Amino acid sequence: MPPKIYRWINIFGNNCRSFSYITSSPPQPRVRSNRNTTVGSHTNTSEFLLLAFSSHQETLLPLFLALYVAALLGNLLILVAIGSDSHLHTPMYILLVNLSLADLFFTSTTIPRLLHALLTGDRTITHSGCLAQVFFFLLAGNVDSYVLAAMAWDRYMAICRPLHYAAVVTLPCCVKLLGAVWTGTTLHSLLHTFLTARLSFCNNHALPHFYCDVYPLLQLACSDTSLNFLVALIEGGSTILLPAVCIITSYAYISTAVYRARATGGVRKALATCGSHLCVVGLFYGTLVGVYLQPPGQLNNWGRDQDLVATIMFSVVAPTLNPYIYSLQNREIKASLARIFMVNRN
């Protein structure tokens, strides 16, 4: 082949290769895998698994069903007894009404979902349902704590300052106090729910619990939880310790007043008015403090058997026993219930 023709063929071939390079699509960049992307997402968690009580369903189902029915019946009877008797519309019984409402929230937030899991074997809970449990559980628990503190202050005023009781502990004062309690605990619950909602979670969505709580969720999170732990330690810890300090201080003054009285009548009066409240406080705080005020190193072991038992005691057993403890030791409530049953019988 002549050299001139060979040279033109080479030029034509080079031009074709250049044209094909220009018209072809450029190479696509490699997409690096990101744990926060939509595919294989760790942030858009659709559901969690509640693994507690995954065995012995035949025994646990009737047990928790009986506890739930007893809690509903007892707290509703307290509400009916106080609501139907105008003589019981006093600050002490208004506080008791709010305690019963908080106990109804407490049990209804966790037990129905647990009963569903024990009955059907479905242990999944949606992300939104989990956050709803976090909110209402924190709300009910904190209302319980502050109402118990307000009841301790009420007993302090009745025993240590009886002449000032009617002037200080009034119904408007009680309503304002309860309004502040419900407002403050709602804001507290919203804060922790919002901080939990912003977290991203790893592939492991199994919670070693029978409801969604803040600390177990923090253990599953893949994102930074330092702010959550800081808020839980400072703000959350204060919401537990502040009512506890008020209760301890009130009963310290009550004990001093009873000791100074030295009279048998004074001791009996104090025991009659404070006995039921002390039983409820001991049952509630004795287990609550053991669960939530643990050293930081033990939070990684959340879900142990002793933690589950303690959680059941303050979130299920205590709200169930509260109305029966108060009604059995309170003559006015028993009389009101007796009148209701007599009217219905006639």
TrEMBL record:
Cited SUPFAM superfamilies: Family A G protein-coupled receptor-like
Key words of the record: Cell membrane, G-protein coupled receptor, Membrane, Olfaction, Receptor, Sensory transduction, Transducer, Transmembrane, Transmembrane helix
This protein's name: Olfactory receptor
Record Pfam families: 7tm_4
Organism: Sarcophilus harrisii
InterPro entries the record matches: GPCR_Rhodpsn, GPCR_Rhodpsn_7TM, Olfact_rcpt
Family: Belongs to the G-protein coupled receptor 1 family.
Domain of life: Eukaryota
Transmembrane segments: 60-81, 93-111, 131-153, 165-185, 240-259, 271-293, 308-326
High-level lineage: Eukaryota, Metazoa, Chordata, Craniata, Vertebrata
